[in-house]
Amino acid sequence: MGVKESPMTVLSTADEGKVLMDITGSEFGVVTKVDPEEQVAYVDPEPGLANAIIQGLGYGDAGEDDIRVPAKSVATVTDTELRVDGTLGE
């Protein structure tokens, strides 16, 4: 279905289960939950295989150690990933 790119990325619950990537293409984690009202994605940096599958099916939830990623940091959204406009973990 392609890529949606805009100055203001809008996150939705359909983005849950997608992989978060940084600008260099490094995988950072899996989106566990999206708060569409606050426009924030919660990302598990170490999801493990079972949790990644659960998130991919849309049945997961945000955990205590999840990282909060505001929509303004997301540059592009595809069918499988969210890509931030900078590098993560530096």
- The assigned structural class equals mainly beta
- What general form does the structure show? globular
**Discrete helix count:** 1
Estimate percent helicity. 10-25%
Main sheet specs: 7 strands, mixed
Mean pLDDT score: 79
Write a brief caption for the model.
With 90 residues, this protein is mainly beta. Helix content is 10%, strand content 34%.
Outline the structure in words:
With 90 residues, this protein is mainly beta. The chain has a single domain (4-84), classed as Roll (SH3 type barrels). 10% of the residues lie in helices and 34% in strands. It has one helix and seven strands; from the N terminus they run E-E-E-E-H-E-E-E. A seven-stranded mixed beta sheet has the order 1-6-7-2-3-4-5, with no helix packed on it. The chain is globular. The protein starts with a strand and ends in a 6-residue tail after the last strand.
Note the main attributes of this structure.
mainly beta; 7 strands; 90 residues; SH3 type barrels; seven-stranded mixed β-sheet; 10% helix
Write the layout of secondary structure elements.
Elements: E1 4-5, E2 19-21, E3 27-35, E4 40-44, H1 48-56, E5 67-70, E6 74-77, E7 81-84
Parallel strand pairs: 2-7
Antiparallel strand pairs: 1-6, 2-3, 3-4, 4-5, 6-7
